[in-house]
Amino acid sequence: MRKLALAATLVLFAVASSAQQPRILHGTVTSIPASPNLGAQIRASKTAFIGYSVPEIESEHVMCCFTTYGDYRTGGTCSLDRDGSSFNSSDRDDFHVASSDVFAIVYHVENGEIARVRSYSMDCALDANGAAVTWIDGVDPKKSVALLASMLGSAGHRSESVMSTLAMHADASATTELERILSSTTAPDGTRGQAAFWLGQTRGRRGYEDVLAVAQSLPASPHLREKAVFALSQSKAPGAIDALINLAKHDPTAHVRSQALFWLSQKAGNKAAGAIRASLDDDPDSGVRDKAVFAVSQLPNDESVPMLIELMKSHRDPSVRKKAAFWLGQKHDPRALAAIEDVLKR
Fold first, then answer.
1. Which of 59, 102, 252, 319 is the most exposed place for a label (fewest CB within 10 A)?
2. Taking a C-beta distance cutoff of 8 angstroms, is the pair 99, 110 a contact?
3. What radius of gyration, in Å, describes the C-alpha atoms of the chain?
4. Quick one: 241-346 is in which CATH superfamily?
């Protein structure tokens, strides 16, 4: 009996979660129950905007709209008739989203077809600008995932917004779908690269391992491997930095080594700096060594300036010395200018 009661509680929670609505301003909202065919229900909408809520994967993303002026950011309201929702890290202090287990998905329907899909945090106010909005209660998350996945292969849809919306689903079918796209032999590399990014962003250790496998896969195209290397660089999984270092040092493809070096340069820390410095001494490809000099220039000044000075003065490769001098010249640091003057006076 206790198990039956628990199951009933979970079902009621899922229904209640999917019935939640975001704050919709300046518009009339009509609620309707979900039908068996979600795609047909949405395309048959009598209103231009129709949406629903589903359980959200645990993440650090705020899905809302912002205007940024330097270090100041304002916003928190999105217009449904504009192409303007965006993902932002929630570590900023100037916009806080109330804890929610669900997120909102809104479709813009034109002439019986889905023209646009956007996802929003539940605490993000949505301005309907006088339009009527239909809200569907009780949507099955699996049907939502299936609908979005079907849209990825259709012309006229921006795959970035469809993929990101799919990825924010907590349902296990979303993970399965992202992995299916990533391993597909027929999907474009751009679509597979987006799947890699969102697997790394939202699927924890499992997503990290999916992305790492593609980054290390020699049969994969250079473009797809580049996307996977970027996804690794954005992963917070333990071992991601070590994986990038391993690719920078040992991958047989010069382009992949260069990409790994670049993304390592965006990571502060002795481990990343040491790997970049080692590539300058050990990599047999001159193009990779040139990219490594640029990677050094991207490190924080307290790391990059002394290393560039050393490279300019003493590296055995004339091309490395020349590029180190060039990147030193781009630094607004008195140590860089003094070192360049010293070399010129010799």
1. 252
2. no
3. 25
4. Leucine-rich Repeat Variant (1.25.10.10)
